[in-house]
Every structure is written in structure tokens, then in C-alpha cells.
Amino acid sequence: MYRGLYVDKPQSVRIHEEQEAPLQPHEVRIRTTFASVKHGTEFHLFSGESPFQDRRFDTQRRLFVKKEEGEQPDIFTQHFVGNMVVGTVIEIGQDVSKVRLGDTIYCYGPACELVTKIEEEVELLRAPMSAWDAMCLDPALFAFAAVRDSGARLGNNVVVFGLGAIGLFIVQMLQRSGCAHIVAVDPIEKRRALARGFGATTVVDPTLEDIGLITRELFDGQGADIAIEASGNYHALHGAMRAVRNCARVVTLGYYKGRDAVLELGAEWHHNRLELISSMPVWNNPSREYPHWDRQRITRTLVDMFLKKRLTSEGIIDPIVPFADAATAFLDIYHNPVHAIKLGISFSSGGDAQSLTVKGE
């Protein structure tokens, strides 16, 4: 038997126990040391306000359609919560050759004491890449896609809305891209402080200041060249439209919740002829640069950036709580994220990433 963090209905999370299935020939069983939660998507689905509550996504027609009477939600109900896992291989199937017993690996997976994956889905954790780096590969992937979709390059002025894990990696990547000015926008002070440390030239609390006016003051009466909206908040999207100059690009990657109507599309959107791009490298959407950039190449590139310390996860996995406190922490952050960036869960007694045995390069 093993336990995991489990959603049984909207806005209800608990520790749930299940029996592990027999291991198949190409499968690997991992004892989890650390796990992380995906705040945007998992909190959105947890809220009960996602489009999946009353509709289903027709994958053939790429269209949300109304559910038939009595049809239950087809996904995201009664499921284990979690995004990335780091742990130790404790059992391997007879046909597994990629990893050995005792190896430290990382993979996508739920926040459970035991995780079972096919061998192609796991990767060895190699120094100097840390457990925290591995748990940040998913937000780094979304950040990478958004920055490339934005077309940000040397000399651009860019505004980033939402400084969760994804937004903080966007700031790092924009700084690496040689952008002249990076304005980081978030109401949470600790996130703004991290963004400044990662290369933001200006930080803004949108609850206290008008970002549209600020960008005009910063950029010679014009707005920014690009805005990247990573919060999934309609008010932030409206702010992004106000923050850029005419004919500028606004890139979104947040999972917008509900059916809000705060967007004034007759204002800056219409009069400044803005370009709006959804940057979403999942749901079977290929990169806009496919086939030159596929998922495998992007992942390899990000791993290499972590290994060469061109990206850092320092400060992003926060807070880190024992597994016993995970359900309480999940609910606390859902209702009040002011003290959190990306929730980490420790399944080890020490809770120290340095205790892991990580192979050298």
C-alpha cells in the first residue's frame, strides 16, 4: 500500500491510500523523496471552475462541447495531485535497461509515496543538477515556450505578469536573451524580490500602481514591446494590453479560470491593434517552431541550462512541507498564496535535497 495527495471533489484534498499494481516488464517503481505541485493548472481544476466541469474537450474537432445529460466529468476527478517527482528506484521490470536499483531519478508524477512509470518516462538525476532543478523542469518548459513565442530579443522592453514559478523562469530567460528592460508585475512582495534578483529591472505591485502609466514613464511615452501574461488572471491580461505600445505582442500561458468579463476589448486592444498569442506547449499543441524544436529538444536544452547553471531554481520551490502536512499546505496556498511560490513536498525525514545520491556528469 502507498499514500498520496488526492483530490476527491472540487476544493477538497486529502491523503488517500491505494494498493500498488504488479510491476510490468518495462516499468520502474520509485520511492519518492520530493514532489512538487503545479499551481496554475491543478489549482484551476481544483476550484471546480474549469471548462471540464460542464463540457468535454472533443480531441478530434479540437472543440469544447456540451456534455450529455448525466455525463460525468471525464478527467481531473478523484485523482492524485502532483507535477514532478524525484526519488529512488526500488524495483525494476525484467526488461528495464535504462536505470538500476538505487538510482536517483526524476519524472512527471503525482505526490505519492510510490510512483510507477515506464522506463522511457524517467531520467537519471545528474550533478550538478539539483532535485529542485528537476522539480522545476515543467514550469521552465512553459517559460521557454512563452519566451520563444514572444520573439523577445536583444534590446526589447518586456513586461511579465505573474511571478509564480513560470513567471520567474521567464524573467531569467529574458535576462539571458539580452532584453534591455524587464518589468516584473505581481502583488506578492517575496515574488517581486526574487524577480529582481533574477534580472528584472523594475518590479511593480499592480494593486498599488497603474502598469499602463508606468510603462509610458519608463519607455519614452510608449508602452513595452512585449507583454507575457503568466498568471491566468483576467485583470492581469487587461493590464498586459494596457502595458504595451501599439502593434505590440501579448503572449499568454496562464490557465484562465471562469468566464470573466473584465477585458475591455474596445479600449487598448482595439485602438492599438495588438497581437494576442496563446503559448501552450501541451494538449497536443506542437511548438510554433516544430519540427526544428520538438518537446525532446526543448527538454534537453533546459536540462543543459540547469547543468550549466544558466537557469536556477533557487528560492522557487517554496514552501517545502512534510508529506503529513501536504493537504493542509495545499489548501492554505490555494486560499492565500501570499507566502508561496511553488509547493514542494518532502517524503524524507530530513527534507534535504543534498541527502540524495546524485550521479556526477
Features:
GroES-like_sf; metal-binding; 2 domains; 26% helix; NAD(P)-bd_dom_sf; 6-stranded parallel sheet; alpha/beta; Quinone Oxidoreductase, Chain A, domain 1; Alcohol dehydrogenase; 361 residues
Describe the structure.
This is Alcohol dehydrogenase. Belongs to the zinc-containing alcohol dehydrogenase family. The two termini are 35 Å apart. The chain has 10 helices and 18 strands. The strands form 4 sheets. Strands 3, 7, 8, 9, 10, 17 and 18 form a 7-stranded mixed β-sheet that branches. A 6-stranded parallel β-sheet has the order 13-12-11-14-15-16, with helices on both faces. Helix 3 crosses helix 4. The protein is of the alpha/beta class and 361 residues long. The longest helix is centred in the middle third of the chain and has 14 residues, at 137-150. It has 2 domains: 2-136 and 313-355, Medium-chain alcohol dehydrogenases, catalytic domain (Quinone Oxidoreductase, Chain A, domain 1, Alpha-Beta Complex); 139-278, Rossmann fold, CATH 3.40.50.720.
